[in-house]
Amino acid sequence: MMKVRFGKEEDFELVQKIDDGIVFPEYKKWIDNNQVYLIFENEEFAGWIQYSFFLERIPMINYFKLFEEFRGTGTGENVRQVYCCIKE
Fold this sequence. Notes:
Elements: E1 2-6, H1 12-18, H2 24-32, E2 36-41, E3 44-54, E4 58-66, H3 75-83
């Protein structure tokens, strides 16, 4: 079962496992603005998504990373459907 939740400060190490190019000050800014979602499949960390707003009103995905084992399983499509519901 897939679960998606807002990222928290203590999740930074999880995000680093899949994307070590992210630095904490940038991540902290995103979580303070609720712009990070963590994706779990059967309680296992599957990936993350980070978005911002284009022209301050249109949500735009900046990062969407899934571990290899979760690709092609429908997880990404499910996350896309969740993302389509994001509102300002």
